[in-house]
Amino acid sequence: MAFLKHFVSIRIFRSGMFFCLIILLFCVNLFSTQNVAYFEIPHQKDPKTIAIIGAGAGGSSAAYWISEAFANSSTSVKTTVYEQLPQVGGRALVYNYTRDNTQIFIELGASLFIDVNYHMTNSAKKFGLEFINYGEELPNAKVGIWDGNQFVFEQSSSSYWDISKLIWKYGWAPIKVQRLVKFIISKYLKTYEFKEPFTSVNLEAERLQLDLERKFTAQYYFSELKNINQLYLQHLVEPMSRVNYGQNLGEIHALGAFISLAPTGAKSIKGGNYRLFEKFIEHSGATLKLDTKVIKVTKLQTINGVEESVKYKKFSGIEFENIYLEMKEIPYVTLHVTFVTGRLNPSYFNRTKVEDFPNQILTTNSGKTEFLSLAAKIILENGETLNKIFSHDEMSDEVLDRIFSERSWTFRKVWKSYPMLMPNQTFPPIEPDTNFYYVNSYEPLISTMETECVSSNNIAKLLANRWISINL
Predict the structure, then answer these.
(1) Which of helix, strand or coil describes residue 8?
(2) What domains are there in the chain, each with its CATH number?
(3) Which range is the signal sequence, renumbered to this chain (predicted)?
(4) pLDDT in tens, the chain (472 residues)
């Protein structure tokens, strides 16, 4: 794909400017390498010019929240969204699997959100989008936890029997963890009640009383602070952080583990989650420029005739000039997503028949497992299953031929999927430079489609507070 490469210059006047990089937001003078096309910064009463780099969950929702924030004010805004890919959605991307009489849109990246995700759920309803409940394509699917030798837990057809087995094996740990999850999630939901926007991620964690949960690893938090049964953590809690964030309890902060354990009402958008982000752009009235890669941003400081010295900084593949950008790159997990249609090999799982073991398989951190998760998505007419596999390493043909007795189709995708949710880290600033905002600063705290919307909504509030008050 040939990208249109644009240089973006920002000339600072008395009116403010706003920028979004994967998702940063800014007001621009713009010129490309092929055609010079200048966009002059407007005077105080003219429409404010906003540019958003990236049309994923954060960028697309930012465009929408900004349009909503200024809808009933005397301040008008003009927004342009730049996306280097040929489609909206960012890490929400689908593969249209079609074979015989079967068609299914498979999420390659961000797959699910849950009932309490206010922005995702209510916006989808507002835009008339349909939901698919998790597991709807494969009714009666059962979960199992594989440690490389055996299934340490297998879901049955009776939830009461499953709970009894868990309590018999792990004591009251399942109940204690369930109560903790409910308590922590209730704390986080207060974010929707606050009227005032937050100015730093650290302050928001403190405001939500979740500072402790982001300071310690999940392993230390659960085992040392909450005295949770260690075997239960290994067998039931850690597999959830592995499938949701590709990270073990000794790596991820406790808040990340809690988010992994809160899948109540898991669902997706029919046809692909990216459709919601398309709707955000559509209803924002923003100009969308696909196949457009921003490679440089320059701030030209000319207030009172004083020009700053030229300084360069590389961040997220973009060169920034004359912009204060003292922040580190967020490290991301490399995730291999592999789709396979075929028939599982029961002997790989030490069974004699495929029907004898679960079709939604999570794994422990035993060092003996070759994948993070393996989930059957649908049973095809010929009896084969379409399976989705997450792994840290590429699933080679050799490995797949051991897991599957037959394979008719294989598809591989590599992602920088989620940030490393490291404990006690320093979060990037929300506003690295004046009127220059970074939506993804929130991701090291919680990384979901919903929290990208929370972060972009917060920035829209900050911007509205600043710009609308100026014009009052």
Answers:
(1) strand
(2) 4-89+271-330+423-471 (3.50.50), 171-262 (no CATH)
(3) none
(4) 222 222 334 332 222 333 344 334 443 333 333 333 333 344 445 678 899 999 999 999 999 999 999 998 888 889 999 999 999 999 999 999 988 877 888 898 888 999 999 999 999 999 999 999 887 778 788 999 999 999 999 998 888 899 999 999 999 999 999 999 999 999 999 999 999 999 999 999 999 999 999 999 999 999 999 999 999 999 999 999 999 999 999 999 999 999 999 867 889 999 999 999 999 999 999 999 999 988 888 776 654 554 555 566 777 788 888 887 878 888 999 999 999 999 999 999 999 888 778 989 999 999 999 999 999 999 898 889 999 999 999 999 999 999 999 999 999 999 898 999 999 998 999 999 888 899 999 999 999 999 999 999 999 999 999 888 654 3
Angstrom distance (rounded) from CA 173 to CA 446: 24
Beta bridge partners of 313: 320
Cβ-defined contacts of 216-219 (< 8 Å, 24+): 216/253, 216/254, 216/423, 216/424, 217/249, 217/250, 217/251, 217/252, 217/253, 217/254, 217/423, 218/249, 218/250, 218/252, 218/253, 218/254, 218/256, 218/257, 219/248, 219/249, 219/250
CA-to-CA dists, residue 152 to 159, 232, 242, angstroms: 17, 10, 16
CA dist., res. 221 & res. 224, Å (int): 6
Number of C-beta neighbours around residue 304 at 10 A: 5
Q: What are phi and psi of 371, to 5 degrees?
A: -150, 165
Cα–Cα dist 472/464, whole Å: 12
HSE of 340, CA atoms in CB hemisphere, 13 A: 23
At residue 104, what are phi and psi to the nearest 5 degrees?
Answer: -145, 135
